Amino acid sequence: MAAEVDAVVWDIGHVLVQWSIRSLYEKLIDDPAELDWFLANVATVPWHFRHDAGEPLADLIAEKVAAFPEHRALIEAYGPRWLETIPGPIEGTPALVQALAAKGVPQYAITNFGADTWAMFRPTFPVLDEMIDIMVSGREKLAKPDPAIFDLAARRFGHAPGRMLFIDDNAANIASAAALGWQVHHFTGGAEALAADLQALGLL
């Protein structure tokens, strides 16, 4: 039987909000084959992950412009239009944050998010006001699934790993946290499955 949970720790991208580079570039590139090529070779997820890990967005954009000068306008759109990579919230999970807050459950977040893009995004998503603390990978220059970010979070949040429930969609992140003794919920079944888990733990 799982131990009691004193706090809930959320991932943000793909758990509380949708995120897709395609959501931006499908507005800018009409040809499907060209769009697929651009996302596979230019504005790629591994390239963006370097921002999550701490590299400034401006440096990453400049690097891509140098490599693909013929696509300068498209690449440079990534900065000012980055919020368009977030088409909206994940259905049902922001309401669970609010329900836990109403029950007085302490809530935190650990998110792989670049410092520059976080500054753009954070004011647009007020449900995060319910979080006591949010660990942002781009600020810490530590990114999931590195165990170091979970160790730092446990110290900062002030709860034992075994008394926190960590929610994430990424299997590697879940495995890393579980190996350190955290309770975990692999977010694959949507908000209803998560709500059932929270109820089983006596949190809702």
**Shape-level CATH architecture of the largest domain:** 3-Layer(aba) Sandwich
The description of the largest β-sheet is: 5 strands, parallel
* Share of β-strand residues: 5-15%
User: Which ranges are low-confidence, i.e. pLDDT below 50, for 5 or more consecutive residues?
Assistant: none
SSE run: EHHHHHHEHEHHEHEH
Overall average residue pLDDT: 97
Number of helices: 11
Shape: elongated
- CATH topology call of the largest domain: Rossmann fold
Give the structure's gist in a few sentences.
With 204 residues, the protein is an alpha/beta fold. The chain has helices at 21-25, 32-41, 45-52, 57-67, 72-76, 93-102, 115-121, 137-140, 147-157, 171-179, 190-200; strands at 7-10, 107-111, 133-136, 164-168, 183-186.
Describe this structure in words.
With 204 residues, the chain is an alpha/beta fold. It has 2 domains: 7-18 and 88-200, Rossmann fold; 21-85. The protein has helices spanning 21-25, 32-41, 45-52, 57-67, 72-76, 93-102, 115-121, 137-140, 147-157, 171-179, 190-200; strands spanning 7-10, 107-111, 133-136, 164-168, 183-186. The chain is elongated and about 55 Å long. The model has no long low-confidence stretch (mean pLDDT 97).
